[in-house]
Amino acid sequence: MERSEAGRRAKALFVLSVLATVWALGVPRQLEAQAPTGGVLTVGVPGEPVGLDPHIVTVFSSLRRADLLYNRLVRYNDRMEIVGDLAASWEIPDSRTYVFRLHRGVRFHNGRELVADDVKYSFERIADPATGSPARAWLPPFESIRVVDRYTVEFKLKHQLASFLSNLTLSNMAIVPREEVERHGNLHRVAAGTGPFILDRWVPDDHMRLVRNPNYFRRGLPRVSEIILRVIPDEASLLAGLRAGTLDMAHLSDPAVIDLARRTPGLTVLQTPTVLLRTFGFNTTRPPFTDVRVRQAIGWALDRQRIVELAERGYAAVSGPIPVSVREWALPPSALPYARPDRDRARRLLADAGYPRGLSIKIQTSPGFRLLPVAEVIKDQLKEVGITAELDVSEWGVWVGRWVRRDFDSMVEIRSGGIDPDGFLYRMLHSTGPVNNFLYKDGDLDRLLDRGRVIVDYARRKAIYDEAQRLIMERAPVIPLYSPYDTWAVRGHVRGFRQVPTTQYYYLEEVSVARP
Amino acid sequence: MGRFLVRRLLALVPVLLGVSVLVFGIMRLIPGDAIEIFVGTQVGLTPEQRQELERIFGMDVPLHQQYLGWVLRVARGDLGTSLRTGRRVGEDLAARFPVSFQLAVLATSVSVGMALPLGVLAAVRRGTGLDLLIRLGALVGLSLPGFWLGTLLVLVFSKYLPVGLLSPYVPPGVSLSQNLRALVLPTVALAAPLTAVLMRYVRASLLEVLGQDYIRTARSKGLREAVVVGRHALRNALIPVVTVVGIQFGYLLGGTVVIEEIFGIPGMGRLVLYAIYQRDYPVVQAVVLLAACLFVLVNLMVDVLYAVLDPRIRYA
Q1: Cα B256 to Cα B265: distance, rounded to the nearest angstrom
Q2: Mean pLDDT, to the nearest integer, of A79-100?
Q3: Cα(first)–Cα(last) distance of chain A, in Å?
Q4: Which residues of B touch A398 (CB under 8 A)?
Q5: Whole-model pTM?
Q6: Residue of chain A with shortest Cα separation from B260
Q7: For B270, which residue in chain A has the nearest alpha carbon?
Q8: ipTM higher than threshold 0.85
C-alpha cells in the first residue's frame, strides 16, 4: 500500500480508509520460502535499557526494547510510508478527527484481548502530566478520545496538528494494558505488550532474553523462537563477537569499526540514512552571522560530500533541512542551494558583505558525538574562501551549557526531532521554536511553518514545505550537512532484516536464521 | 595490634569526611549543569520543567543541605540513585567493583611475579650485561604511558595478530576462560609500568641490603648464595617493595579509567568516567568515597604486613 497516495486521497475525499490490513497481516513476500522458522538470534547492542515503560522512557536503548515488546497504532515501513500496526485501517473524516479500526484478536502477553478501550487508556496515560511522558509533547490537546465500538476508536483534536499520524509511530506511543500498569505502578520492569516478543529474562548490563510471542497477531511472525539482546558498549567488542560467532548481528555506529566490518568476510553491512541531521548553525544575533550574505558564503564554501567522506568515512548522506530519508517531504540536496560548492561565489558574497579580505569566526565545539571532526573539516574548507575559523573546544557539559544559554557564535550539532516536517522544522526554526538556538526570527518562514502545522492535505502541505526548505537554505540560519547512516552488521545466515530510517527494531520480527 | 587496628579504622572517619567534602564541592564547582546535560540539546526546557527536575534530583535545596542530606544517607548505607539511569548507586558499585578488583589483582600479581625475580636477578648480577638489559627494559616500561600501550595492543591484536584476545568482557561466573582471555591485554597494559617501577625498587632495595654486615656474616657462615639472598636479604629488602605494591594496588582498586575505557571493561573506572561526563553526582561521589576507603584499608594492610615481614616492627 502506498501510504502517500492513499493518504492524499483519503484526506482530500474525507472518506477513504487506508487498507494497511493486507500488508500488516501478510507475511512479507520476499521472506516466504526462506530460512525455516525457529532458532535463536543473538543481537549485539551498545546500550543497556534504563527501564521498559514505553510511555516514560527516553533512552534509545529502552525505546528499542519497546519496539519488540509493544505495538503502536501505526508505524513507518522501510520506505518511510506510514502503514498500519495495531490499526488495520484509519480514516480522517476531517482534519481534526482520526478514526482507527483495530485488528481483531490481538492479545497482550497476559492473554487478554486488546480492545479500543486500551487505546483510549494508553493515550490518556501519555497525556496525563503525572505520567511524565516525553511523548506528551508530540500529542495535540484532545477534545475527546471516544471508544466507538470494541475495535474502533476516534480521536478528536482541539486544533489541527498535521503531524499527528506521523507522531503516532514514535516508540513512546505504545498501546499498553491498564491492568498491568495498575498492578505494577509502571511498566519499567515488566513487559506486557502485544509485541512479537515476550520478556523472559533480564540480566542487567549483560543481556535480555526475549521469547517468541505464540499469539502474535501477524501470522507466521516472529520467525525466530528467541532473541538474545546482548549489551556490549564497546564497538570493537561488538565486531569481535560477530567474528567469533557469539553474535548474529550487531548495531554499529563507529565509522572505524564499520570499516573493519565491511572488510570482514561473511559479514554483510546494511546502511540507511537516519532521520537525524548534522547541522552547522549560526547565532543569527551575533555579527558577522547577522548578515545573511556571510551565512550564504559559508553555505557555498562548504563541500558537504567531502565533509561526509572525511568526518564520517562516507557513512552519511548529504541532506537538506529535512533529512533525506524522509522521502515523502525532503527535497533532494541537488534541488536546493549549495548543491555543489562554489567558492568564487562565496568570496563575492563575503566581499559584498564588507569582508573582501576574509574574516575570522569562532566555532564552539566539543569532543562528544563526533562534533569535533566535523568542525575541523569545516575549518579547513572555510580557509579556502578566506574565513579563518577558530575552534573553541570545551568539555561536553560546558558545551551543553553554552547551547542552553545560546552563548555561541557557530556550532556543529546533531539534530533529531520527529519525522514529520512540522515536528522537525517548527521546533528548530520557528521564531517560537523551543530548540531554535540560532535565535532566528523570520516572518516568512514562521507563516509557512504555521500553515504546515494545520494543513492536512498532502499536496498543499508538500508545496508549503518545499518552499520552506528553499527558504531555509537561501536565508541560511543553519546549513544542513548530512544524515548519518544507521548501520547493522549481519552474518550470512541471518535473513530478512529490514532497516527503518527511524532506527526502530520492530523488523527483527521478520528475521530468520539458517545456521549451516 | 588490636588497638592499633581500631585506632587506624577510626581514623578512616575524618579521612572520608574530608574526601566527601572535596568530591562534593569539586563536582559542583566544575562548569556544566547536571540538568542541562540530562536534558541535552534537543529539548527546550521550560522553567517549570526545570524546577520539576531540580526537585526530582534533590537540587531544590541549598548546597549545604544537599551535602548534609547526602552524608547522612551514606552513613546509613544509602548511596543514593543515579541521576542518569535511575538505578541504585549501591547496585552499580556492587556490579562494577568485582570487575575492577579482579583486574587489580591480576595486574598486581603479574607485576609482582615478574618484578621480584627480575629485580633479584639484576641486583645479584649487578653491572653485567643482564643487569643492563633488565634495567633498560624497566626504563622502557616506565616510559610507556598506559593509554598508549593499551591502544597499541588493541591495534596489534586486532589487525596483525587476531588471536582472539580482544574478545568482549564476560563475568568469570559465565565463562572463566573467556573472562581471563578478555583480561589478558588490559592486565599487560596495567602491569607493564607497575613491573618496571617495582623491579627497580626490588633491585635498589636488595642492593642496599646485600651491602649490610649481616649478609657478610651469613656468607661467612658458608651459606649458599641462594639462601643468603632468598632468606636473609630479600625478606629485609621487601619492606619498601610492599609499600609500593600497596599503594599501586590501592590505586588500581579504584578503577582504571583509561585502560577500562580502551578495552571496554565494565569496571568502576568506566562507571565514574561516564558519570563525570554526565555530572551524575551521586555516582561520582560514591565511587570516589569507595576508592578512598579502599586506599586507606589497603595501606592499613600494608602496615600490618610490615610487622609480619620484620619482627622488629611492632604496633601497640
Answers
A1: 10
A2: 95
A3: 36
A4: 31-32
A5: 0.79
A6: A234
A7: A233
A8: no
